[in-house]
């Protein structure tokens, strides 16, 4: 059949042109992939050269042997250098970290980081915030405050971390109320950021707690718990006496001293089983030998979690030895209570 007659059929012609177009697109995609791989390969080689050039100098600075004269930092080396510098800072403390700070200042990287923070793309701003936090650069404070209020959680939390590094006391005054309000921020991140400002944060939280409404109080108490902050007795007593179950639960989790032990004992009989669970755990932390009978009574609670936490609390009581617990287990007449205590003892038996 002649070729002209073949292409005169519209269906065959459409199929041919569709195939040619697909082939052309495949070739273009292949060329693009090859180009991207070549670009990535060049970038990786350039980064490897930068690291080979600067890693020995940074290592020398860490041990206090930085050269008197530093080579210029090429523009292509800046990002690999900063990533390496931040990585090293994350594992250093004290004089070694300050030596790296001085090294970066000699290269003018504090100014570069402030420029990245103000005008860079997202990744550059994140890196700039990390650098300025490690440098404790007070001049970056206003820009970091602006970024801390961004909707981007990663960017805002990184800026908040940098603020704490720069000035823990001033940052605690600003951050503690914000962390109470921003429930979209995970408590683990909040605690990690405030860890270096736990003292100032404790003072701010103690001042905030009496004025908070019951909707915000549980989160504030959980922040105090995550930071292992010992709250003022008056604040804790008020929270333990609250009619709101979430507040009472959060307050029980914050009990670290025996000053409120009478309220904790009373809450062992609370109608809500979640409260009884936390009361048992709190008694395990601060209780006395005489509290063993109270915890034994909870071993007969209708809720499994209450029985389990009561058994754990018995093992945690500092005044009870292992032999005392074993004798107590043998004396129990309630089969469910005895089984629960035996299970927890087995879980805590030394390997």
From TrEMBL:
InterPro entries per UniProt: ARM-like (IPR011989), ARM-type_fold (IPR016024), PBS_lyase_HEAT (IPR004155)
UniProt KW Transport keyword: no
Leader sequence segment: none
Domain of life: Bacteria
UniProt xrefs under SUPFAM superfamilies: ARM repeat
Name of the protein this chain belongs to: HEAT repeat domain-containing protein
Entries under Pfam families matching the protein: HEAT_2
Keyword Transmembrane helix: yes
This protein's UniProt keywords: Membrane, Transmembrane, Transmembrane helix
Listed transmembrane segments: 12-35
């Amino acid at each position: 059949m002649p070729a002209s007659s073949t292409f005169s059929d519209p269906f065959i012609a459409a199929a041919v042109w569709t195939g040619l177009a697909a082939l052309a697109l495949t070739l273009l995609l292949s060329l693009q992939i090859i180009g991207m791989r070549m670009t990535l390969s060049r970038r990786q080689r350039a980064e490897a050269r930068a690291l080979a050039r600067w890693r020995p100098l940074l290592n020398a600075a860490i041990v206090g042997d930085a050269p008197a004269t530093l080579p210029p930092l090429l523009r292509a080396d800046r990002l690999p250098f900063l990533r390496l510098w931040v990585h090293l800072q994350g594992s250093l403390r004290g004089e070694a970290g300050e030596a790296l700070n001085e090294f970066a200042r000699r290269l003018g990287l504090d100014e570069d980081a402030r420029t990245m923070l103000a005008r860079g793309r997202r990744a550059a701003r994140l890196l700039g915030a990390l650098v300025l936090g490690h440098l404790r650069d007070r001049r970056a404070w206003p820009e970091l405050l602006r970024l801390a209020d961004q909707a981007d959680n990663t960017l805002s939390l990184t800026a908040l971390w940098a603020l704490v590094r720069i000035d823990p006391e001033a940052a605690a005054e600003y951050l503690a109320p914000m962390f109470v309000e921003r429930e979209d921020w995970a408590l683990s991140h909040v605690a990690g950021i405030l860890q270096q400002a736990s003292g100032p944060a404790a003072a701010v939280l103690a001042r905030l707690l009496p004025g908070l409404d019951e909707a915000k109080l549980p989160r504030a108490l959980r922040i105090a718990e995550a930071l292992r902050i010992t709250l003022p007795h008056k604040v804790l007593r008020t929270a333990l006496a609250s009619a709101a179950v979430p507040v009472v639960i959060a307050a029980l989790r914050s009990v670290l001293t025996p000053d409120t032990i009478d309220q904790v004992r009373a809450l062992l009989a609370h109608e809500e089983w979640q409260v009884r669970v936390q009361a048992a755990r709190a008694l395990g932390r601060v209780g006395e030998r005489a509290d063993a009978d109270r915890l034994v009574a909870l071993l007969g609670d209708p809720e499994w979690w209450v029985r389990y936490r009561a058994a754990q609390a018995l093992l945690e009581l500092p005044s009870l030895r292992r032999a005392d617990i074993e004798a107590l287990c043998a004396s129990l007449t309630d089969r469910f209570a005895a089984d629960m205590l035996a299970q927890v003892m087995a879980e805590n038996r030394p390997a």
